[in-house]
Automatic annotation (TrEMBL):
The keyword Acetylation applies. This is Glutaminase. It comes from the Bacteria. Belongs to the glutaminase family. It comes from Deefgea salmonis. Its EC number is 3.5.1.2. NCBIfam families: Gln_ase (TIGR03814), PRK12356.1 (NF009020). One of its GO terms (molecular function) is glutaminase activity. Homotetramer.
Amino acid sequence: MSLDHAKIAAVVKEAYDKFSQAAGGENASYIPYLASVPSSLVGVTVVTKDGTVFECGDSNYEFALESISKVFSLALALEDVGAEEVHNKIGADPTGLPFNSVMALELHGGKPLSPLVNAGAMATVSLIKASNPEDRWSRILGMQSQLAGRQIALSEEINRSEQTTNFHNRAIAWLLYSAGTMYSDPMAACDVYTRQCSTLISSKDLAVMGATLAAGGINPLNKQRILKAENVPHILAAMTMEGLYDSSGDWAYTVGLPGKSGVGGGILAVAPGQLAIAGFSPPLDPIGNSVRGQLMVAFIAKELGLNLYAVN
Ligand code: GLN
């Protein structure tokens, strides 16, 4: 089934008009930079697998990628070491606990369970092939850039804000190391993980990155194959299980698409074989998901009939 472009354009605009003023939520404040981003910003973008872009609002405003970066480093780790090793060393289950939970690690003998929580993301970074941390970082930035189809850059300001406040993540990295589930120097992995969260992307970039997944690993703008097709279902499964942290089940139940959020206010949903929807607005619900982003993305998915579990 191919969706009608006029319908997509109308639905994207309707989502923006309906929810861009929605109340509720607060900017993340545990990373000082994020507290300073204007809460009124709202962007939404759909990119189809053939590269058509539909956007509304602040869709070119560049915000911190944050946790959504975990998806793209997972992609790189899968390319590097393969699905089996990622599954064995990291896991593919929801933790049922907050994204930076220490208890989740304690309960499972140090196995992080998901590449999309902080512990699993740092362990995933440590699996990526590299001769040193700078090389690992440039490969991750290269992957983000290839998926977006343009050069993605680190924000020095965001990175400084995160690196000087990431004590909890450093503790998690050492816990992984002590459990034997960290595969490089733990502080170097934490440092690189923190950088990957501190890159700047727009909702348009995010939708292109997601559309690359929707197209089975081919960037829809430049038609380059970025990922092996066989790795994409593993990425989407991880997103389904843990992409919106401990509301991933609610998201699957109500929206029915693999998704991923970040505390910068970004949120991405992928309709395999069709398109990706990206939303951005800084105020978050208590779990860490963008309030307006979830409303807009869920609305678009519903109006376009994209629920994967629906029998049409
Ligand atoms: N950099 C953030 C952290 O590690 C990302 C978390 C998130 O977006 N959920 O805490």
